[in-house]
Design a protein that fits this description.
Shape: globular
Helix content: 25-40%
Number of helices: 6
Bound molecules: S-adenosylmethionine
Number of domains: 1
Strand order of the largest sheet: 3-2-1-4-5-7-6
Strand content: 25-35%
CATH superfamily: Vaccinia Virus protein VP39
Largest sheet: 7 strands, mixed
Number of strands: 7
Length: about 220
């Protein structure tokens, strides 16, 4: 792993160094992960963009052995402290990677990328990370990708230049080998979304759960 400070790393370090900013606060349960991973037999899991560790800790509590990755050392430090408090430190390996530069070794029964968005998602970076994520799924394992599909309705001037892809776009960009994968869930979801100043609205997210088949069925 190189120790280069890329713009992505700098952005997320600055983000997490502000103690008021969080992506994965204590007690926050990711309903999409709970619904999908809750039906799987625990094995090994890779959590990409784990932030302060809520998903990884939840997975560890369900019996998974987790490799948890984030670009921010600050986020990982908070996550590891929480895991220790919750008694699951021995089930989670926290690794700092800037994923386009380096990626954890190995294959996993579950590879999870939950809202792995970044302000510099342009230029195919996220797509390349997700392709590498698919390569890390063990035969018989699952790739779970959740993402934002639109901006909150109360946000009238959304950032320019950030594309939030549909599941069809994500699937196409994965370039999965024909006959070797099965799409188990492909859905657009609309949820309530509250703004920082009490605004009320909705936001669209999408979810893909894709199974790597044990045998080629083509
Ligand atoms: C929008 S937050 C989502 C966090 C969490 N997965 C969730 O669902 O709440 C994106 C996370 O991905 C991390 N991240 C963004 N780009 C990354 C990269 N290139 N390599 C590793 N982690 C990255 C950020 O530090 C941040 O914690």
């Amino acid at each position: 792993m190189t120790d280069v400070i890329t713009p992505t790393r700098q952005y997320w370090e600055d983000f997490y160094r502000n103690p008021d900013r969080t992506h994965s606060p204590v007690g926050k349960l990711n309903a999409l992960l709970v619904a999908e991973a809750g039906t799987l037999t625990p094995g090994t899991a890779l959590d990409l963009g784990c932030a302060e560790g809520s998903d990884s800790i939840w997975l560890a509590r369900q019996g998974w052995r987790v490799t948890a990755v984030d670009v921010s050392a600050t986020a990982l430090g908070r996550a590891a402290a929480r895991a220790a408090e919750e008694g699951v430190a021995d089930r989670i390996d926290w690794q700092r990677h800037d994923l386009p530069q380096s990626f954890p070794a190995g294959e996993f029964d579950l590879v999870s990328a939950q809202f792995l968005h970044s302000p510099d998602d342009q230029g195919g970076t996220r797509e390349a990370i997700l392709r590498r994520a698919a390569e890390a799924v063990a035969p018989g394992g699952a790739l779970l990708i959740s993402g934002h599909a639109g901006w909150p309705t109360w946000r009238h001037e959304p950032p320019q230049g950030i594309h939030l892809p549909s599941t069809a776009e994500v699937l196409a960009s994965l370039r999965l080998a024909p006959g070797r994968w099965q799409v188990e869930r492909d859905e657009l979801l609309v949820r309530e979304s509250a703004g920082p100043d009490g605004e009320v609205g909705t936001r669209e997210d999408n979810i893909l759960r894709i199974r790597r088949l044990r045998r080629d069925v083509s």
